[in-house]
Amino acid sequence: MQDITEIRDKVVLAGLNSPVLKREERASDDTLEELSALVETAGGETVGLILQNRASPDPKTFIGDGKCAEVKLYCENTGATMVIFDNDLSPSQLRVLTELLGVQVLDRCGLILDIFAQRARTREGRLQVELAQYQYLLPRLTGMWTHLERQAGTSGSGPIGSKGPGETQLETDRRHIHRKIDKLRADLEDVRRVRNTQRRQRQKNEIPVVALVGYTNAGKSTLLNQLTGAGIPANNRLFDTLDTTSRLLSVSDTLDVVLSDTVGFIRKLPHQLVEAFKATLEELEYADLLLHVVDVSRPDWQEQAQVVESLILELGAGELPRIDVFNKSDLLPPGEIMPHGEDICAISARTGQGVDKLLEKIARRLDRGVRRVTLHLPYEQGGLLDMLYKEAKVEAVDYGATIDVTAVCSPRTLGRVTAFIDG
């Protein structure tokens, strides 16, 4: 049988390192390597990397005419069908570069949006991605169309019946996109309302929420699987998880928590996505505990951790209790010194190494005085049993001389039944 291999886009990566750019906006060997991994995630193949060092960006071509000619020659020699820049480009720069290079040109933001569009599975995820895409598209409308002549002028020179408001195609498209954005925001508000209802129910049941956060591909989904047996696909690629997944986790015999896996963070994350994904990431603000998962096997793990720190602050979750989980510690060379402390835990989500210590730390941070007790209720106090079913976790009931109940109770519930606790 003939072996049929899917033909992928061949991509040349380009980036600019300039002292006038902010540090997080500059391209480097590390960011180009990450961009190459993003290209692979999107289904492309990187055939070349070009890093330009320049005093300042060229207003027209970003990297300068000479470097543009070099990139074009590289594309012709490698058969590349696309050039992706590690930096954000202005709409006019995208247009000029596409014309000069003769191939499709994207920037990092456009690539990440494309990956998100491929990966989103739930209705909420698709809504968020579509909103981000329209917000990205809006300032880039100019030059995307060749039909920008006036549709219905008022000069009187057009044919009879053509007089009208005189809108350009561009203005019509922009108004249409604004309507789409308003509709998507309204739909996402509906999603938020559903989430708020679910959150209130969890609070009513006094179930703490633990949110997994971290850089993309740090191992959050693998950890969720290790802790809960969720069976969520966890692949070694960027942005493998886009939709929030929540599972119930029994941390100890007296503590259950809701464990939520969130979308991974990344440097140079498009601000449209930060905004669009707040319906998902606002879970962080209401979490009782954050688990910041760090891929400690990476040489740049500290830089990645700082990216996550900044985004946590931007999302208003900087004051939440947190445990730093240094994952993939089994990949470190023997004798490597790991960070340590009360709220630091080294694990391997893949092998399960250190997970028991992590559970102990979670239990300590979330200890709310919940206790398992045996109660002897007189029959005339039978109404308390109904209260226990509503407010506690009733494990066993035995009817004898008294109603003997084994239950896991919060301090508030314990205060109402103290007189009947065994011992």
Describe the 3D structure.
This protein has 423 residues and is α/β, with parallel strands linked by helices. 39% of the residues lie in helices and 20% in strands. The chain contains 13 helices and 13 strands. It has helices at 29-41, 65-78, 91-101, 108-119, 123-137, 169-204, 220-228, 271-276, 278-285, 301-314, 355-365, 383-391, 411-417; strands at residues 10-17, 45-53, 82-85, 104-107, 209-214, 245-252, 255-261, 289-295, 322-327, 344-346, 371-377, 393-399, 403-409. The protein has a six-stranded mixed β-sheet with strand order 6-7-5-8-9-10, sandwiched between helices. A hairpin with a 2-residue loop joins strand 6 and strand 7. It is elongated. 33% of the residues are buried. Residues 1-5 and 143-166 have low confidence and may be disordered.
Describe how the helices and strands are arranged:
Layout: E1 10-17, H1 29-41, E2 45-53, H2 65-78, E3 82-85, H3 91-101, E4 104-107, H4 108-119, H5 123-137, H6 169-204, E5 209-214, H7 220-228, E6 245-252, E7 255-261, H8 271-276, H9 278-285, E8 289-295, H10 301-314, E9 322-327, E10 344-346, H11 355-365, E11 371-377, H12 383-391, E12 393-399, E13 403-409, H13 411-417
Parallel strand pairs: 1-2, 1-3, 3-4, 5-7, 5-8, 8-9, 9-10
Antiparallel strand pairs: 6-7, 11-13, 12-13
Helix pairs in contact: 1-4, 4-5, 5-6
